[in-house]
Write a structure and sequence with these properties.
The complex is a heterodimer of chains A (about 140) and B (about 375).
Chain A (H helix, E strand, L loop, with lengths): L9 E5 L3 H14 L4 E5 L2 H9 L6 E4 L8 H10 L8 E5 L4 H9 L4 E4 L4 H18 L8
Parallel strand pairs in A: 1-2, 1-3, 3-4, 4-5
Helix pairs in contact in A: 1-5, 2-3
Chain B lengths: L16 H14 L3 E6 L4 E4 L1 H7 L3 H4 L10 H4 L2 H10 L4 E2 L6 E4 L5 E13 L2 E10 L1 H53 L5 H32 L5 E4 H11 L1 H6 L3 E4 L4 E4 L1 H17 L7 E9 L2 E8 L31 H11 L3 E6 L5 E8 L1
Parallel strand pairs in B: 8-10
Antiparallel strand pairs in B: 1-2, 1-6, 3-5, 4-5, 5-6, 7-9, 10-11, 11-13, 12-13
The chains are: A alpha/beta (about 140), B alpha+beta (about 375).
């Protein structure tokens, strides 16, 4: 495979709702098809992927998930010295102040409210790529 | 035969003394209340027929006994002290103000009573006449009322909880509808014919109305289930935020919003924003062909701040001025004045949860004036 086809960046999306998955997939595909999207349907699946040496550049994390919810997974990631450097952005439909507070207490790197419209997802994909994969400097690690 | 017929004023006085005495005894006997007369030492001198029925004692068993015989054991020790206290300041009054009183029957069972005390004096001897009412039935009704009030409060709270959960969960599928409709337009718009675009537009508008409805229901049930989070709120800043949020509606209506300097109040900030934004938004929405003029006045009114939000809009006819504060109440069709009918219901709930009041009147400019009070 030519090196140019290797994914530029990888995002782990932890989300169980197929509708949200479809919107995120479509939006990121359109903004930057070179970004690799990996999906996990709950916290346990996501943790298994991360512990199996999958190192995404970013985690997009829903809060309400089956089996192990987003808060639990977030707490585990931020307690693990190997996983801690991976930025985790919570992406949820809740705009409740208590959730925002709680999630930052758990060391989330950002809090995003799910957009109501597809255009909002496009904007989210554009800004996420710009800020986290270009503007910001993070510790380097090998994929 | 008495030569002069008795007048009403004379009453029983024309009757022989013995007749009068018999009659008074009969009155005491048929009284629906138990009557017990005791001397200053608390010995029973006399008890009426109702006392026998109420307490299950024969009269001969009561006379000469201490009144404590009628009092539940656990209160007996304290009773003589109360009795002495009474004779130190004898007056007509209720026994045991604020305490629950009980009588004790011969068989040891108890029942709730109310007792009126009356001092009597005869031939230098002092007595106390207790009039005892069995309030078992009233107590039962009271406790049944309390139970149904508690049940009502609980079922109201359940309903609020349900409305909150339902509207919260309704938002998720709605997000899918709006999200994918938008994707359809953005990604496949060119493939759609004008009729298909029309369909999408109607669906988008419907979804937007539904979102407004759900947001309104959520805000309304939240204001009902949660106690307001009180803090010092600078209403000047709240109004600035309202101006920001309604900037496009203000521009579109060529509206002008003019306000007094607003005070700092102790309130829930989110709810103050909802309150002022709903009122200003209504004032802009229900306008005539003229540009909208909205005036907000604030003044001190006793322990309250009095606020007025007046407009030059279409006004509310007198018979509907109370009704507009009801849930889902709307006076106009959705084409000209779209809305969910929740706004003013939410405003009323917010004001009342803050201990204030709100009503609508007609404004001097011919439109509506909403007046509300918030505690200072």
């Amino acid at each position: 495979m030519p090196p140019s086809s290797a994914p530029s960046h990888s995002i782990l999306i932890v989300e169980d709702n197929p509708g949200d998955i479809g919107l995120l997939r479509a939006a990121f595909q359109k903004i930057d098809p070179t970004i690799e999207l990996v999906f996990a349907g709950d916290g346990i699946e996501a943790l298994a992927l991360l512990r199996r040496d999958h190192r995404p550049d970013l985690v997009l994390l829903d809060l309400n998930l089956p089996r192990m919810d987003g808060r639990e997974l977030l707490a585990l990631i931020k307690k693990d010295p190997l996983l801690r450097p991976i930025p985790v952005l919570v992406l949820t439909s809740s705009a409740a102040e208590s959730d925002v507070r709680n999630v930052y207490d758990l060391q989330a790197n950002g809090y995003l409210v799910k957009p109501d419209e597809y255009s909002g997802y496009l904007e989210l994909a554009r800004q996420t790529r710009q800020y986290w994969f270009s503007t910001i400097r993070l510790p380097t690690h090998s994929h | 035969m008495d030569p002069t017929p008795p007048t009403a004023r004379e009453g029983l006085r024309h009757r022989p003394r013995q007749w009068q005495a018999d009659m008074f005894r009969t009155v005491v006997e048929v009284s629906p209340n138990a009557m017990v007369m005791a001397d200053a030492q608390g010995r029973i001198e006399f008890a009426n027929a109702r006392t026998e029925q109420m307490f299950g004692y024969g009269r001969e068993e009561l006379v000469g006994e201490p009144v404590e015989i009628l009092v539940p054991e656990r209160f007996r020790a304290a009773h003589p002290r109360y009795l002495r206290g009474y004779f130190e300041a004898p007056e007509q009054r209720a026994m045991g103000a604020g305490r629950d009183l009980y009588g004790r029957r011969r068989d040891g069972t108890e029942f709730p009573v109310e007792i009126g005390l009356n001092p009597l004096e005869n031939g230098g001897e002092r007595f106390v006449l207790s009039v005892i009412i069995d309030i078992t039935a009233r107590k039962e009704i009271e406790s049944r009322l309390q139970a149904s009030a508690a049940e009502l409060a609980r079922s109201n709270a359940d309903l609020e909880q349900f409305a909150y959960a339902a509207s919260h969960d309704l938002k998720e599928p709605l997000r899918m509808i709006t999200g994918y409709l938008d994707m359809l337009t953005v990604e496949h718009g060119e493939a759609l014919g004008p009729q298909a675009h029309d369909c999408v537009r109607h669906a988008v508008e419907g979804a937007a109305r539904m979102r407004a409805l759900i947001e309104g229901l959520l805000a309304y049930s939240r204001a009902g289930t949660r106690a307001p989070e009180l803090g010092l709120v600078e209403l000047e800043l709240v109004l600035a935020e309202v101006r920001d949020n309604l900037a496009s509606a203000l521009a579109e209506s060529e509206g002008e919003l003019d306000a007094d300097e607003l005070p700092v109040v102790r309130a829930d900030r989110t709810q103050m924003l909802q309150l002022f934004q709903n009122l200003v938004s209504n004032a802009l929405k229900f306008r005539t062909a003229q540009p909208a003029r909205v005036r907000i006045r604030a003044s001190a009114d006793g322990p309250f701040w009095r606020f007025e939000v007046a407009d030059n809009g279409i006004g509310i006819e007198e018979p509907f001025r109370e009704r507009v504060f009801g849930m889902f109440q709307r006076l106009h069709g959705g084409n000209r004045y779209p809305g969910s009918g929740i706004g003013l219901a939410l405003c009323r709930r917010i004001v009342e949860r803050h201990g204030g009041k709100i009503h609508a009147e007609s404004s001097p400019e011919g439109g509506t004036r909403i007046v509300f009070l918030l505690p200072r």
